Automatic annotation (TrEMBL):
Main enzyme class: hydrolase
Descriptive protein name: 3'(2'),5'-bisphosphate nucleotidase 1
Residue intervals passing through the bilayer: none
UniProt source species: Ignelater luminosus
Catalysed conversion reaction: 1D-myo-inositol 1,3,4-trisphosphate + H2O = 1D-myo-inositol 3,4-bisphosphate + phosphate; 3'-phosphoadenylyl sulfate + H2O = adenosine 5'-phosphosulfate + phosphate; 1D-myo-inositol 1,4-bisphosphate + H2O = 1D-myo-inositol 4-phosphate + phosphate; adenosine 3',5'-bisphosphate + H2O = AMP + phosphate
Keyword line: Hydrolase, Lithium, Magnesium, Metal-binding, Signal
PROSITE patterns on file: IMP_1, IMP_2
């Protein structure tokens, strides 16, 4: 994810984004394509029999040798693997890769919204993930290292950041800035929030929950896919938060599931009652995502 983040910055510095329209309000750039090839090549070389699904489709062509990462994070490897994973085999695992989350914002220069997402599902549950933010600190003076990586494994914990709880006594909700519609807005209005943070990317919004900037992420839309939510859900769950559909039911992340998160996204920070958010979603919106 870190190497992919460097590729994303390099594409932007060169200034040739190579934008392709995949669908309505749905762009792909050279950064999405190259970052995906980097991650797919690196993972499939180390784990040739694990199912890896990337947003930008299969990409088996050769990649530059310096895109292939072969080393592992020794600090994380030195930690004790939770006993629940000791018997896991390749067949139990699906890896969901979003090489660049927040493409719309990337093309508009809102670079802090961009993340690289690699999520690991075991037996259909999102349990492990990394969220790399390639432009963290990019506007700071020299001397600050650029980019950071959040990680989490359910049963082990999280790393790469300092978790914070959102402020009590107010309600801050984060949601889409580039994929809104009437239903998305209706679902926000029922909560009567003190503040709405409209930012790009599923990864970035979950970072806001984990750093105490928002209490909940509400997105009554079918726009997100499994690669958008697998890594964020895993890291958030490892921290004690929750990400589900708008009914409060978990998504399945087996390799054969449908890619679309057809029942919307509702996530809450650690220490926030997820059920109380679910209970406020009105019937009209529940019915639209039945
Ligand atoms: N209607 C949509 N079409 C395509 N992708 C979407 C749509 N809605 C959401 N997404 C994906 O989910 C992410 C979170 O949504 P939003 O930023 O609107 O809150 C987007 O950055 C985008 O991922 P990506 O940028 O990887 O294509
Ligand atoms: Mg996309
Ligand atoms: Mg995405
Ligand atoms: Mg993407």
């Amino acid at each position: 994810a870190t190497r992919a983040g460097k590729i994303i910055r390099d594409v932007m510095s060169r200034g040739e984004l190579g934008i392709v329209e995949k669908g309505k309000n749905d762009l792909q750039t050279e950064a999405d394509r190259s970052a995906q090839r980097c991650i797919m090549a690196s993972l499939s070389r180390q784990y040739p029999t694990v199912a890896i699904i990337g947003e930008e489709g299969p990409s088996n062509c050769e990649v530059p040798s310096d895109w292939v990462v072969t080393d592992c994070d020794q600090t994380i490897l030195s930690l004790q693997c939770p006993s629940e994973y000791l018997q896991v085999t390749d067949k139990d695992i699906a890896v969901w890769v979003d090489p660049l989350d927040g493409t719309s914002e990337y093309t508009q220069g809102l670079l802090e919204h961009v993340t690289v997402l690699v999520g690991i599902a075991v037996k259909g549950r999102a349990v492990g993930g990394v969220i790399h933010q390639p432009y963290y600190n990019h506007s700071a003076g020299t001397g600050e290292s650029i980019g950071r990586t959040f990680w989490g494994l359910v049963g082990l914990g999280v790393g790469g950041f300092t978790p914070q709880d959102p402020p009590p006594g107010r309600l801050i909700i984060t949601t889409t800035r580039s994929h809104s519609n009437e239903l998305v807005q209706k679902a926000l209005d029922v909560f009567n929030p003190d503040e709405v943070l409209r930012v790009g990317g599923a990864g970035h919004k979950v970072l806001l929950l984990m750093e105490g900037k928002a209490h909940a992420y509400v997105f009554a839309s079918k726009g997100c896919k499994k690669w958008d939510t697998c890594a964020p859900e895993a890291v958030l769950t490892a921290l004690g938060g929750k990400l589900t559909d708008i009914h409060g039911n978990p998504y399945e992340y087996d390799k054969d599931v449908q890619h679309t998160n057809a029942r919307g996204v509702l996530a809450t920070a650690r220490g926030i009652s997820h059920a109380s958010f679910v209970s406020k979603i009105p019937q009209e919106i529940r019915d639209a995502f039945a």
